[in-house]
TrEMBL record:
<dbReference type="InterPro" id="IPR023210">
    <property type="entry name" value="NADP_OxRdtase_dom"/>
</dbReference>
<protein>
    <submittedName>
        <fullName>Aryl-alcohol dehydrogenase-like predicted oxidoreductase</fullName>
    </submittedName>
</protein>
<dbReference type="InterPro" id="IPR036812">
    <property type="entry name" value="NAD(P)_OxRdtase_dom_sf"/>
</dbReference>
<keyword id="KW-0560">Oxidoreductase</keyword>
<dbReference type="Pfam" id="PF00248">
    <property type="entry name" value="Aldo_ket_red"/>
</dbReference>
<dbReference type="InterPro" id="IPR050523">
    <property type="entry name" value="AKR_Detox_Biosynth"/>
</dbReference>
<feature type="domain" description="NADP-dependent oxidoreductase">
    <location>
        <begin position="2"/>
        <end position="244"/>
    </location>
</feature>
Length: 246
């Protein structure tokens, strides 16, 4: 579907993908992990085939907790894919600064993907990205929906939702809702929605951040993109949020 959508605008698009989890195309499931060089080569070829393209602009290692002792072998195969012209740039999706540093020493590493949002993240990984001039791609910038304001104490989720175990009354999510309510006015300042404020917080926190918010509807895509019109939160607003959450 993505290949069809790219059509004649492929050269205007940056494709970022990952490798490391196994994938069964018939069932569209990812049942396991594999960081072996042979598997990564195969996964890259399969992605190129499905996307109907000759290169992946940013290829990232997906296994955030992979054995550091084997990381050099993983880096070598990613470098091999760059040399072959199949990948233009590489990165690692990890919240661990030691692992991120392995890829960061490569001149072809352009990004580290990490979990970060207004409620927290690994500042050391961010510092590494800022020091090396890398993009810090942010997964979970909206807290898997928590920062959009769509949940309340009585919210429930269907069994087929990965968040179905969330407890908005007494669990960690209840505390997150309380904290969100405390900073709501700051995040929604200047006409922003909560989601736009959460994205603006990231841009205000670091110029390295490139958030990748999730979406299920066209309206959510438009809302996320609308955050660009507002830009980053101001330093005073960032400080206000820190003071409130502390």
């Amino acid at each position: 579907m993505i290949a069809a959508a790219l059509g004649e605008v492929r050269d205007e698009i940056v494709i970022a993908s990952k490798a490391g989890y196994t994938y069964v195309e018939e069932t569209r499931e990812a049942p396991g992990e594999n960081g072996d060089p042979e598997y990564i080569r195969w996964a890259c070829e399969e992605s190129l085939r499905r996307l109907n393209t000759d290169r992946i602009d940013l290829y990232q290692f997906h296994l955030g907790g992979y054995d550091v002792a084997k990381a050099d072998d993983v880096l070598a195969v990613f470098e091999e894919l760059v040399a072959a012209g199949k990948v233009r740039a590489i990165g690692w999706s990890t919240d661990d600064p030691e692992r991120a540093a392995v890829f960061a020493r490569s001149p072809h590493c352009k990004a580290i993907q990490q979990h970060f949002n207004v409620f927290g993240g690994n500042a050391d990984v961010l510092a590494l990205c800022e020091e090396r001039g890398l993009a810090s791609i942010v997964r979970g910038p909206l807290g898997m929906g928590l920062l959009t304001g769509k949940f309340a104490a009585d919210s429930t989720l269907p069994a087929d939702d990965v968040r179905h175990g969330w407890d908005f009354r007494t669990g960690d999510q209840a505390e997150s809702l309380r904290r969100l309510d405390a900073i709501r006015d700051v995040l929604t300042s200047d006409g922003r929605t909560l989601a736009q404020g959460a994205l603006g917080w990231l841009w205000g926190r670091s110029e390295s951040f490139v958030p990748i918010p999730g979406f299920k509807t066209v309206a959510q895509v438009e809302e996320n993109a609308g955050a660009l019109r507002h830009g980053p939160l101001a330093p005073a607003q960032l400080k206000q949020i820190v003071d409130i959450l502390q």
